[in-house]
UniProtKB/TrEMBL annotation:
GO terms for biological process: negative regulation of complement activation, alternative pathway; negative regulation of interleukin-2 production; negative regulation of macrophage activation; negative regulation of T cell proliferation. The chain crosses the membrane at residues 159-185. The keyword Lyase does not apply. It comes from Cepphus grylle (Black guillemot). Keywords: Membrane, Transmembrane, Transmembrane helix. InterPro entries: Ig-like_dom_sf (IPR036179), Ig-like_fold (IPR013783), Ig_sub (IPR003599), Ig_V-set (IPR013106), VSIG4 (IPR039939). This is VSIG4 protein.
């Protein structure tokens, strides 16, 4: 009986990344998962954040339901309900002030009423332009990640977003018109 309760507890490990880079104003998921074990019931789930100057519990799930405890996260965070073992935190509209260390803590109750607690921490960085962004000219052929390059151009020029989009649309129309004219000129007249 002793090994029965020790062995399953060893499998109740939380897994998730050590660090995540999220895009400003985008959504992100902080993965936290475990493999459910028979005779161990999830009792409490908490997501705790430590910022530069403050800390607190963002989210708590217990027998009374889900509770968002920090007002700056209201209407912006959720945790899946119908996915056993998936207790990942979903954050909408990521703000620069959201950077910090997030701890996922789960408490299980065993069939003998003993409690087992596990936790895992993830450091979150919030960036305006991803570090893996690339825009490069390969012999006249533009190789790019479109959203990444638009974000880079937007940050570099400080132009309003609608103006950047307008310039891109007009530029595309001009290129289309030039290609159309070249094809029409080369086509033999009937």
């Amino acid at each position: 009986s002793f090994s029965f309760f020790i062995l399953p507890a060893a499998f109740l490990d939380l897994t998730g990344p050590i660090e995540i880079e999220g895009m400003w104003k985008a959504s992100t998921i902080l993965p936290c998962v475990y493999v459910p074990v028979e005779d161990f019931v999830q009792q409490t789930l908490m997501w705790i954040v430590v910022h530069d100057q403050s800390s607190g519990t963002i989210f708590r799930r217990d027998s009374s339901g889900d509770h968002i405890l920090l007002s700056e996260y209201r209407d912006r965070v959720s945790v899946p309900k119908d996915a056993p073992g998936n207790v990942s935190l979903h954050i909408l509209n990521l703000e620069v002030s959201d950077r910090g260390t997030y701890t996922c803590q789960v408490i299980w109750r065993a069939s003998n009423n003993s409690l087992i607690t596990k936790e895992i921490a993830t450091k979150v960085e919030v960036v305006k332009v991803p570090r893996n962004c690339c825009c490069c000219d390969l012999g006249g052929l533009l190789h790019l990640k479109v959203s990444c390059c638009i974000a880079l151009d937007f940050q570099r020029t400080r132009l309003p977003l609608y103006l950047v989009i307008l310039i891109a649309v007009v530029g595309g129309a001009v290129v289309f018109l030039l290609v159309f004219l070249i094809i029409c000129i080369r086509k033999p007249k009937d």
